[in-house]
Specification:
The complex is a heterodimer of chains A (about 100) and B (about 170). Chain A has about 100 residues and is mostly helical. Chain A has a single domain, classed as Helix Hairpins (Orthogonal Bundle), CATH 1.10.287.3510. In chain A, about 75% of the residues lie in helices and about 0% in strands. Chain A has 3 helices and no strands. In chain A, α1 packs antiparallel against α2 and α2 runs antiparallel to α3. The N and C termini of chain A lie far apart (about 55 Å). The relative contact order of chain B is 0.06. Chain B contains 7 helices and no strands. In chain B, about 75% of the residues lie in helices and about 0% in strands. Chain B starts with a helix and ends in a 6-residue tail after the last helix. Classes of the chains: A mainly alpha (about 100), B mainly alpha (about 170). Chains A and B meet through α1, α2 and α3 of A and α1, α2, α3, α5 and α6 of B.
């Protein structure tokens, strides 16, 4: 069996790459895609912990199903906001959207 | 069986990491989206290695199926402007790489130095029947609340993306 740490290192790598994309890229849709990558990293960590826990195995998997549903809702709302912004402002870059800057 | 598991894990981990780097670095949005689909499929493979077949099936259905198509539709609907974007990384993006490395190193250090009760024994994930038992007995109320969340998200998405500007 692969030890637990390897799965956790994979999860950390996926989370960090997703965070890099969220911080560095300009396009809103790509930022949403990178948020999905971060959520996938968290899911890998939860399922790995669920697989190796001595009591309460399977609880982590239930949390993963909740994260699936919340991620689907988040993508739907995020892309709806993106399309509404595109229709109103014709802009797709996060650094061009500074209407709420003080 | 153990060696096969190890080998499959390394192949899948390499695929997932390289596809994730591709999502961030590709210039074309469609290429990024296809790379993201490969990454999600690899994550489903990781779930299979962890004996979580139901989560793997849900991953393929929700992420590879639904969310990828939703993102491709959004790319298609906003194509003319995002297609000719010339600068892909914004001005402060140099700071993102040290931040990413910091997050990765701190998490890796914490995970490597932690003490694990059971780090390499037999798999403990229950089958689909056990998952259903936990989900519908212990977590029945959060499950029902989740359906309300999805309903609100659907109505909100339709309202935000509708043509009339009644907001």
């Amino acid at each position: 069996m692969t030890p637990l740490q390897h799965y956790l290192f994979l999860a950390v790598a996926l989370f960090s790459i997703g965070a890099w994309g969220v911080l560095a890229r300009r396009n809103i849709i790509l930022v949403i895609m990178c948020i999905e990558l971060m959520l996938n990293g968290i899911n890998i960590a939860l399922i790995a912990f669920s697989n190796y826990s001595l009591d309460g195995a399977g609880r982590g998997q239930v949390f993963v199903f909740f994260i699936f549903a919340v991620a689907a809702a988040e993508v739907a709302i995020g892309l709806a906001i993106t399309i509404a912004l595109y229709r109103l402002r014709e802009r797709m870059s996060v650094d061009e959207l500074h209407e709420m800057k003080g | 069986m153990g060696e096969f598991n190890q080998l499959a894990f390394w192949i899948i981990a390499f695929t997932v990491i390289s596809c994730a780097i591709g999502v961030v670095t590709f210039k074309n949005l469609i290429h990024s989206a296809i790379s993201m689909v490969c990454c999600f499929t690899g994550v489903a493979g990781v779930y299979v290695l962890l004996r979580a077949e139901l989560a793997a099936a849900a991953q393929v259905l929700i992420y590879v199926g639904a969310i990828s198509i939703l993102i491709l539709f959004a790319i298609m609907l906003t194509r003319h402007r995002s297609g000719d974007l010339k600068i892909f990384f914004h001005r402060q993006s140099w700071a993102a790489i040290p931040l990413m490395l910091l997050v990765g190193i701190v998490f890796t250090g914490v995970l490597a130095s932690a003490h694990y009760m059971n780090s390499s024994s037999e798999a403990m994930n229950p089958d689909t029947r056990g998952i259903a038992d936990i989900l519908f007995n212990d977590y029945a109320f959060p499950f029902e609340v989740l359906s309300l969340v999805l309903l609100v998200a659907i109505v909100g998405a339709v309202l935000l993306a509708s043509k009339e500007k009644q907001l």
